[in-house]
Amino acid sequence: MDSQVLVALGLSLVGGLSTSIGALFVVLNEAPNLKVLGLLQGFAAGLMLSISFLDLAHNAINSIGFLKGNLWFFSGVIFFAIIANFIPEPSLAQGSDLTSKKKNKDEGGKDMMKKHRRQVLFSGIITAVGISLHNFPEGMAVFLGSMKGLRVGLNLAVAIALHNIPEGVAVALPVYFATQSKWQAFKLATLSGFAEPLGVIIVAYLFPSSLSPEILEGLLGSVGGVMAFLTLHEMLPLAFDYAGQKQAVKAVFFGMAFMSASLYFLEISLPAEMSL
């Protein structure tokens, strides 16, 4: 393997594995109460919406035009809206016998908690998938930066690492709450970071000749549509349920502001001729 590719892989691992640092903040503390979970779900929803609208969709529109960019974005929305119809919603068994109401009361409470945990786990998986897709082009950027020199690649890897820590929290927290397993939370957050070195491998060996930039930007725009739909359909309702509408909305905008600032500092870390 080429030494430059090895350097890029090492640098991308620094950035990608920083999601593990975020996961450690979660697993080394007690499981949060529902209100804290709701606030952090809102924060994660803000991260996802910022990535969807201000990064992926924005770049697609700038690269391939307003009409094409929007068509790709909404094709992603429609695609996953159709898929969502086939995903069964968690449901509670309803007892019809009046004499068994007292007996079923505790079981109903357990069923409700199971429903909550399934919903939260699903939102954690959504976050992991979305952040993995977002990390993929960051790995490409680290590779291209390292081709320009070790200093450029190292600066970019450090910027990405700092930017990935809260993403690790956003993935690990709902998984830990839903499964009560520190290992599962840590594992899923870490796996979401491995999309970064995968991006290095793809761009180094497959991308240059196999996919046109227009198709790539369109596909990333569609990913933005999928992420936006999933966030609004799954994560935001959970945040409202657990933290209350006012507090959840504040957490969403805080997450969006944090991700926007993070993307800005990441962008200025790049050389002038490069862009995420």
Describe this structure in words.
- By secondary structure, this protein is mainly alpha-helical.
- The protein starts with a helix and ends in an 8-residue tail after the last helix.
- It is built from eleven helices and no strands.
- Helix 1 packs parallel to helix 6.
- About 5% of the residues have low confidence.
- It has one domain.
- Keywords: Membrane, Transmembrane, Transmembrane helix.
Order of helices and strands: HHHHHHHHHHH
Query: DSSP helix count?
Result: 11
Q: How many angstroms separate the termini?
A: 25 Å
Q: How many individual domains?
A: 1
Percent strand equals under 5%
What overall geometry do the principal axes of the alpha carbons give?
A: globular
Radius of gyration from the alpha-carbon trace, in angstroms:
20 Å
Main sheet characteristics: none
Number of strands: 0
Content-based structural category? mainly alpha
| Nearest-integer average pLDDT | 77
Point out poorly predicted stretches. 89-103
Query: Helix share of residues?
Result: over 70%
Membrane topology: Multi-pass membrane protein
GO molecular function: zinc ion transmembrane transporter activity
Subcellular location: Membrane
Protein name: Zinc transporter ZTP29
